[in-house]
Amino acid sequence: MKAWSRSFAKVAVALAAIAVLAFALAACGGSSSSSSGSSSASSSASSSSSSSASSSSSSGGASSTISVTEKEYHITLSPATAKAGEVTFNIKNTGTIDHDIEVLQGTTSKGKTSLISPGKTATLKVNLSAGTYDVICTVSGHRALGMDTKLTVQ
Ligand SMILES: [Cu+2]
Question: What does pTM read for this prediction?
Answer without folding.
Answer: 0.61
